[in-house]
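Cross-check.
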Amino acid sequence: MRLLVRLRAALCGLILVVAPGMAPTSGLAGDQIDLARALRLGEVIEVLRDEGRAYGQTLNRDMLGGRGGAFWSAEVARIYGAARMEDIIQIAMLNGMDADQIDQSLAFFDTDQGQLILRLETSARRAMVDSDIAQAAYDAYAALKGGDDARLALITRLVEINDLIEYNVAGSLSSNFYFLTGLAQSGGSEQSEAEITADVWRQEDEIRTDTREWIFGFMLMAYDPLLDADLEAYITYSASPAGQSLNAALFNGFDAMYQAISHDLGRMVGRATKSSEL
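Predicted model, tokenized:
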């Protein structure tokens, strides 16, 4: 399930917000709408949908022998529906932040500095879909790892403040568990829940290594154009109660979203596998 791990690890915390015309506003109060628009969540969801459709084709090739056809593509598009994904994130925003935290987050992101950070994150996220660019990012991290590079030290502080490794490892394990559970429930495997749990936990070390490589490679590339002062300001915001509440709310929302998506994908693979055996 390496690709699922890569999709999870891309959620580095505060790389979110809503593109014009795509703001998920139903059920949100005015200040929540303003924060959603400042954060540009729609842009990130579009990237996730593109990655999801590509992942669906990988599942079709690797698990179904390429026999999924138009029905498979349509089901993948349904599972990665933008409205559904936005609705799950809305719930996290509604439940995870108070008015002061929202106002403080808006004060940081609704600025030239905050918008520049978000644009750089989204651009890097899109770029790393290309395997050659991703590998170059990993190589750049490998070259600096274990040294005293000042920029790597700043990024390490940001990673640690937002607990990005642990959040992403936990989310990856959870997503893989839900995928395998859906697969078993639809007859695509005969694994028991205990066997699925053991199988998922066996992936932890690989997932942790993959996650660290992805996050540091991504952040080194994304923040390369930033001044140290901009990155320091981002670290200060991230360490504040407002930054911590937004980070937790977004991870909670994306965890719920990926659990639902992974379970649906597993069930769909299982049904398609059973149908091909009849």
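The first helix runs from residue 2 to 9. Confidence is low (pLDDT under 50) at residues 1-26. Passed to J.P. for a second look.
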